[in-house]
Design brief:
Two copies of one chain form a homodimer. In chain A, strand 13 and strand 14 form a beta hairpin. Chain A has a five-stranded parallel beta sheet. In chain A, strands 9-16-10-11-12 form a five-stranded parallel beta sheet, covered by helices on one side. In chain A, strands 23-24-27-26-25 form a five-stranded antiparallel beta sheet, with helices on both faces. The first copy, chain A, is an alpha/beta fold. Chain A has four domains: 189 residues, 3-Layer(bba) Sandwich (FAD/NAD(P)-binding domain), CATH 3.50.50; 114 residues, FAD/NAD(P)-binding domain (3-Layer(bba) Sandwich); 113 residues, Enolase-like, domain 1, CATH 3.30.390.30; 102 residues, Oxidized Rhodanese, domain 1 (3-Layer(aba) Sandwich). The longest helix of chain A has 15 residues.
Chain lengths: 566, 566
Amino acid sequence: MAKKTVVIGGVACGPKAAARLRRLDPDREITLVERGEEISYGACGLPFYLEGQVADLAELVSTPVGVPRDVNFFRAVKGFDVRIRTEAVSLDRAAKTVRVKDHGSGREEDIPYDTLVLATGSRPVRPALPGIDLDGVHCLKTMADGSAIKAAMEGASSRRAVIVGAGLIGLECVEALLKGGFEVHVVEKLGYPLPALLDEEMAVPLKKHLEAKGVRLHFGDGLVRFEDDGNGRLARVVTEKTSLEADLAILAIGFRPNVDLAVNAGLAVGRFGIKVDSFLRTSDPSIFAGGDCVENRHLVTGRPLYAALGSTANKHGRVIGENLAGWKSTFPGVSGTGICRVLGFNVGRTGLSEREARAEGYEVVTALNPGGDKPHYIREKKAIHIKLVAEAYSGRVLGAQILGPGDALSRLDTVAAVLTMGGTVADLANVDMAYAPPFSPAVDNIIVAANIVQNKMAGVARAYSPAEVKGKVTSGEDFVLLDVRTPKEVEALRLPYENVVHIPLGKLRERAGELPEGKEIVPFCLVSLRGYEASRILLEKGFDPARVRFMDGGLLAWPYEKVSKG
Amino acid sequence: MAKKTVVIGGVACGPKAAARLRRLDPDREITLVERGEEISYGACGLPFYLEGQVADLAELVSTPVGVPRDVNFFRAVKGFDVRIRTEAVSLDRAAKTVRVKDHGSGREEDIPYDTLVLATGSRPVRPALPGIDLDGVHCLKTMADGSAIKAAMEGASSRRAVIVGAGLIGLECVEALLKGGFEVHVVEKLGYPLPALLDEEMAVPLKKHLEAKGVRLHFGDGLVRFEDDGNGRLARVVTEKTSLEADLAILAIGFRPNVDLAVNAGLAVGRFGIKVDSFLRTSDPSIFAGGDCVENRHLVTGRPLYAALGSTANKHGRVIGENLAGWKSTFPGVSGTGICRVLGFNVGRTGLSEREARAEGYEVVTALNPGGDKPHYIREKKAIHIKLVAEAYSGRVLGAQILGPGDALSRLDTVAAVLTMGGTVADLANVDMAYAPPFSPAVDNIIVAANIVQNKMAGVARAYSPAEVKGKVTSGEDFVLLDVRTPKEVEALRLPYENVVHIPLGKLRERAGELPEGKEIVPFCLVSLRGYEASRILLEKGFDPARVRFMDGGLLAWPYEKVSKG
């Protein structure tokens, strides 16, 4: 008798696992159950549907050549049965059956399985706050959510929207709402955008970009309630600090894995989802699990985390399909990579932020490297700003944050590859990256960042972070901020502090004697390269190495007060 | 007494080595000699100067903030002496002196050194053909070359240009000349563009792109002579097969390392340049060498190669500077990475092509994966076509070729990083690449390619290359080409052969019986995914596994005759 596999969940991991299994085992009886209407839909495309890029929601459930991925498609093309509007309500692991309920007929039945896949996905966090169920308060997860928000955008009267949560989904919605003519407010409990990905200093340019584009930001402010207009419709979003009239609110404060079925069946469930081993097997060897419902493993730390992404769900599906077919395939883990584009600004992270790395107990060394993504003489160059984080002793790459209007993707993917291989900053610096002026500088930005980390590890470069320098200024410490830029640059942009001394780098060798003795000197320039160079010249001139440190990242990485002219 | 270091060559590696050394050793006496006028110029920017992107040649010798990198700059900012128009004519390794000649005064003198750096660069290949010295025949290497071509472009009368050589530099010049209003002819001895980087099948889309943009291609045709107009000016370029009226010719048939100084001094010189070890030390331990004059080492094969690139020269300079300062730094080698953009088309390679890998004795497995660089529902998606080459036994990644209007860079850099770390296709498939719809599909194109290779290694996917299928057609073999696309797709584009049978994938399970028994079946679709799927369905239906193979890359990778409608 043919072996039977039942797959629960039809968005990304489930169909992938079933299709892979069918290709590897022609004899398997495969049934996929999905409680919703659609199978294998491009949920990640929903913000772009709202924005108008995707003309029709149907595109999100079609193959690239326009064939709808419906029940017939899966039966005819993929070779397995799909039952939609069918919810798995319980498992009997001893009997090896799953009880499903048909939402149409209301009928329940038990489906037997030899092996089972849990790809039950996730649901948006919806706290039990007053007014959460008002008309006008939305999450963005399903096709139905997408339709509802699109309709709300079209029907809105006051054209003011509040996005709660400045994570990836929240930011992806910003552009759609702005383009839809809304005044857009973003409320975020933490103090800066993308707090799960970025260090605070790196979030500053993103914050400024959003502000410059007219987005109203409410950071460090918590959602309290939604108020109605007397007719069951949203009228107002009330936070700890303010009250915002709004006819549309999108809740984007994260997702939780759907684990009820697993919990009720007695499967091991961790803090971040269903527990699986590297074969994506649950605590029951007949049951595999993948996608948004499982606890992932961090490639760098080896520790569990929640990482719900379409890219990961597809990798999971492939591994599960293979193991269902009798292979022994493994999934090594994720690097916590994330990226988004908002209003022409790219922002992404792979690995650990400095804050996360320190919280994990790593001693770290970091580099800040703001600069152009192509040589300065190429017209279409754009700025990107990199923070690279490495383990101080070994130089192992721990993570990178990259943002700006320029090309962040190629550098993030390069770091992600090095992370996957457990490489060091020396490995990263030696990658033979593709170079030609229309693409990148001769020394790529991420290689410069790796070189800075190497210099710091070797003791050649000693630096303060902008935050450390700001702290010294604020506490009134008596030190010299040495601006080594050209007079023209200084005229255009400068730090507004009394302890700033200006000596252009080209004059520093002859004029170093003008600097006060005994005080700490902190050279800086626009990015950090000349600041670093100045620190080496000062040592050459006999200054005490313990009292010379340049400012990491220069003025471009300085997120605090600056005076600019013209 | 201070130790003395002399650096010969002032473009990329030399100044980098000197600057790095100065930062690490404040006491060193450092002299850099350069026979030309300019130091540290952005030679890679010259094609973009011709194109008009770079407004002024001076930008190529300025820092990003506009400070000219002249003799004063290097003395004041970088802290070492530079002597321009000064040629190193010989070395006395026993006496540790270098004899230099001042091109201004004609005077010669001996400069003593403790350590020496040879960064003598390369020169364009200029075969001793009749007419090579005519006015109007140019190479593109120096600032003077750039000025001369720019002037020639402005003064040309007939506005017809011939580029000899379809390598990276030749192709970079195409766009400038087209934009300059020239009819552009490209003459290339080998049969296709970028022959040093690409396999022939991968060069086809590039060739078509160039043709579509109006570039006149003369492949498989060798340069014979240049003919003059009676006044010492170029009138005509004569090749083996044709004669082209032209008032401008650019010779771009490669570069040769400048090794005369090294050879005359008795240093070991290999086929591809001055021999160095991983510390970039020549056969004389007091002499280091780097940049375009040295023989590089291939990271994958461990064998010598010639790889003259600004990115590599800068890495060399850094390592040499450190070793001059007494560190023990190494340079692991290059991956043969190269990229260019020509008329909106990106084309790049890292590692080995299939041809190169086979010539090195590797047994290889390859994947062709044409597709969109973003999900199909994202408006700004563009096509890229990938060929991934791996070692058949281990799955070690050997190289990738990526081209098309879409984003080739991020995928090339990802592969380059995996190559640097010695990774396999499994490693590549597991990289947690940055995913969001504005950037990439949920399963990135390069991960799909890695998965295809894994399927082939596991015996799950068996495929013919387009060239193999073409061979079977040409030899009149009796087999079935099974087109599994939708009727609408077939109507728009099809293969013009009599042995094509059309059964849409969705009907294949029910209609497989229509296929003739005993004949080999070669399913295909637009890219290869449905073709692969069809091959699995046929096995499921009991077809002989030895007689079913899909066509790799589908119609998009098929470079031969196709019939398209409308």
